[in-house]
Amino acid sequence: MAGRTKFQGTGTALVTPFKKDGSLDEAALRRLVDYEVKGGVEALIPLGTTGESPSLTHAEFGRVFEIVRDQAKGKVKIFGGAGSNNTQTAIEHTTLVKKMGLDAALIVGPYYNKPTQEGYFQHYRAIADAVDIPIIVYNVPGRTGGNIEAATTLRMAEEIPNIMAVKEASGNFAQIMEIARNKPKNFSLLSGDDAVTLPVMSVGGDGCISVVANETPREFSDMVRACLKGNWKKALELHNKLLPLMNVNFIESNPIPVKAALAMMGMIEEVYRLPLVHIGEKNREKLRAVLAGLKLVK
User: Fold this and answer.
1) Which of 61, 184, 238, 296 is at 20 to 30 A from 86, Cα to Cα?
2) Identified catalytic residue from 77, 167, 183, 259
3) Domain 9-229: what homologous superfamily?
4) Is the pTM of this model over 0.90?
5) Is 174 left (phi over 0), alpha (psi -120 to 50) or beta?
6) For this structure, is 167 an active site residue?
């Protein structure tokens, strides 16, 4: 059984670049990986929510994982998105993550089905039993329609050895603090919301799986490292600098704004797969103004 290794730092929830014809833009994905690695992040997370994972085929999953793995050249950890509300499908995706030689699987809580807390536990235990790879639980009630409670997360941390971390995006600080206070020492609590990473880390969090790191990998990862070192003055300065971008990245559904931003920065084409569409013009101007303020665009 896979051992549990504590992760601390920044993981970038990578966007998936597409060409104008809707196909994978492999060259742009390689450039983005290089930008993130050079920017100092500790991990890359292809095909989470930010990677538009619901709109990719199984074959495309494998190709994205392969490109990110090969381009990163072992310089950072890679956690592959593998979630599904069908437990068997999640097992298949997690098997692919292991087959591709990635470091861990990020698995979102089952959506639409609305399982009980016991259902969440059994879902993750079935995946962990089937695939010997470290697993990160992803709790994002705003997208899934259900919350994985602190007691359930802590039970998984205690009873399922290859569950290594939770990405907490509930926004429920009572819940987050309970996890921070009671989690095993070798279990990582990762913020799932950029804007609250600093306060999450102040109560014992270990890092973040980040959207804003797509645009500003150096500044955000520096902020997280400052938190880990207890340099709260530097961390707060970087937090305040990036806060407008953290917020505007969610002015419309993620990853619409961050892909628009990366296109403005010349990193990718601004192409989405339905049901996602281009950002509204008023919001585009707000986004451009924030990027200009950070000197990310002219």
Assistant:
1) 184
2) 167
3) Aldolase class I (3.20.20.70)
4) yes
5) alpha
6) yes
